[in-house]
Amino acid sequence: MILDFIDQNKSRYEDELKAFLRIPSISTSPEHKGEVRRCAEFVSDELKRIGLQNVGIYETAGHPVVYGERLDGGAGAPTVLFYGHYDVQPVDPLNLWTNPPFEPTIKGDNIYARGSVDDKGQVWLQLKAIEAHLRTNGALPVNVKVMIEGEEEIGSPNLDKFLADHKDLLACDTVLVSDTPMFGYDQPSLCYGLRGLCYMQVEVTGPNRDLHSGFFGGAVANPINALGVMISKLKDEKGKILIDGFYDNVVAITDRERAEFAKLPYDRKAFMADLETDATPGEEGYSELERMWTRPTLDCNGIWGGFQGEGAKTVLPSKAHAKISMRLVPGQSPEEIAKKFEAFIMKIKPAGVKVNVIDLHGGMPAMTPIDSRGMTAARKAMHEVFGKEPFLTREGGSIPIVNSFSSILGAPTVLMGFGLPDQDAHSPNEKMNLNNFHRGIKCGALFFEYMKA
Amino acid sequence: MILDFIDQNKSRYEDELKAFLRIPSISTSPEHKGEVRRCAEFVSDELKRIGLQNVGIYETAGHPVVYGERLDGGAGAPTVLFYGHYDVQPVDPLNLWTNPPFEPTIKGDNIYARGSVDDKGQVWLQLKAIEAHLRTNGALPVNVKVMIEGEEEIGSPNLDKFLADHKDLLACDTVLVSDTPMFGYDQPSLCYGLRGLCYMQVEVTGPNRDLHSGFFGGAVANPINALGVMISKLKDEKGKILIDGFYDNVVAITDRERAEFAKLPYDRKAFMADLETDATPGEEGYSELERMWTRPTLDCNGIWGGFQGEGAKTVLPSKAHAKISMRLVPGQSPEEIAKKFEAFIMKIKPAGVKVNVIDLHGGMPAMTPIDSRGMTAARKAMHEVFGKEPFLTREGGSIPIVNSFSSILGAPTVLMGFGLPDQDAHSPNEKMNLNNFHRGIKCGALFFEYMKA
Description:
homodimer, alpha+beta, Aminopeptidase, Alpha-Beta Plaits, 2 domains, four-stranded antiparallel β-sheet
């Protein structure tokens, strides 16, 4: 019944989405500040119109957050917090767009506009899922809270404070986010794990000043050579990280996860051809996807020291630097790994050099258990709508807001996204597939339904 | 008799030197071109005045070379080519000079002026040695040729062509250069060996573009890590270079050389304190001086790749680069070592990266045998004038003109210099010790004498 309602309202949904997309809510652009505000009001009006309660526009130090809720499920029922963002990326280079970025245009199955997939289309489809329940049943199956922010595209600088300041208002069992791609068209997927990060900088000092490599070469520690030796000692030839205790707390991948990943249409040859490389080196005993998603890594992100210009300057440099970061997996924390990294560096430091280690940045890994209530509801919903079980995936990067939801609200996040890998989210001609937009509405509606069960 | 003559002419020598030093012959400065020319004429006039023959100012693409000769020794006698330069370094920063750089001023035992020690004072002392022979004996004991160039401070860009174009004119058995420092005051020394150079650049390419270290980390070769591993494989923990065949042709240090170096007042603690380091790592089995002077080395001179700015950019870079140079010792050639370096790099290259090796620059090592005629004459001369046997030293750097004399003229070079390590050759308040200036004249005079024997 609710799915029929959704089928009958397709053209209205598309018209409404177009109105949302016409507002140039570019959060990074000061001259669009008024448009960003107008967009927040547009969202707020819609939350009220579809029947949410306690709707408000909350000021922050930057652009406002729009909030609304409908606590039909009552005290014992689970509470879902739906998070999305109404701000969009800039549109340059404008000349590469085939239609003006804020004049949404439908061609074939796609709607083209800035923000179509990232994230207005995916915000709208969840609002339509909520609306469908309220229009057909007069109530939602569970408690639902909606928080739509206006600063995601500039790194959500004020979101953590907002979460902390409104912990009670936002209290929930599961966060639902629709802002990620599916594996492919007709290939629904759910990402349930993200890696964390420990990003360090190492400064190596040999002699107190740059020296002539002829006069001094042979009796002075060279900080670049020393750094090379230290880098080489961080991993063995089988890709295992040698930092003492590095793997102590790693949560191992399960057989079930391996089986799930093995179902994915990963193509090693295409992967290598795309990168123009002839090998995919990494930790022995794991497939590429397992290594990129479930295993910690160590990579140098930058290195510099001595003479970097044209030609041959015979300098024996005083200093060398490297940025070295480790992707972390559930069980590890950036604090733990930063300590172990520094201790190991100090242990392997060659004679004659001083080493300074700086902790530049860290982020926690995140995982939503496959059999958690949220993941189970999302899998069932996608299976029903797409006619097939969604792939279960993890991702090698971080999504900072997921960490915030975990650390501040104490809630796991379900990443049920309906984008596609080729939809040019931050580029000209951003688009959203309208079939997936409509399928997304149905998935959202069923997700709330199955959260109840 | 000749030494008495030299003693009696001290004040005239100093007055003449002052006149030479007053000419601002800054070779790097276009607006001083006329002064450089005037200085060449000043030298040419002096060569004629003291009695040299066939004196001429030879044009080059840059500043001219002044030449003169006196072939009194006849056909069977050895021929010495004295080389020096009449051009000087710039004078900035002028405000740090306590007297104007081209108004030579005597304070205590020193004469202060730009060019005083590098190299006008040392050119003049050899011309005075020649003059002393001609004034007291009417002839020189051996054939003497004098070549004074005007582009040493800009790297002698036209000297090789000049040597090649005038091979017969410049043909000689030994080249004499006075442009280096002694080990210390009252510590005469003779440098008889210089190291060569093989300077390479290594470019490592992993994926064809910079990647997100979260998405790809774990399944892609990192060119910085790969470069670190390669650098670590170039030397073992005892400082031995591991490139296949690297030491094949090295001429080993002799017991006599070790004994000579052991006489030098080298102070390890002072060496380490000056560089603010707590170790002097290098090849096992050799002292610091032996390592810096007689053993080949391998040092990274520069390294760069990936993100080098402030903060934490999570890039998995496409490329990394290093400049790696090797100091060579007699027996080795840059061509040989460049080939062996490249072959070894290709052998140790990890999977998944491409490596490109570029040969940037090379220079031959040089050695003048301790018991050669020129070295023996110089040792005897210094011993007599200083009242002690000179230290025998080698040097870790290169002096390109010495290679040119060797490769183009086929003659070894005697580096009999009278500078001191603290005479600020390229800095404000350059000075020359006048006692050494006068001792240098005597050494020069006796050198020509002992070359005959």
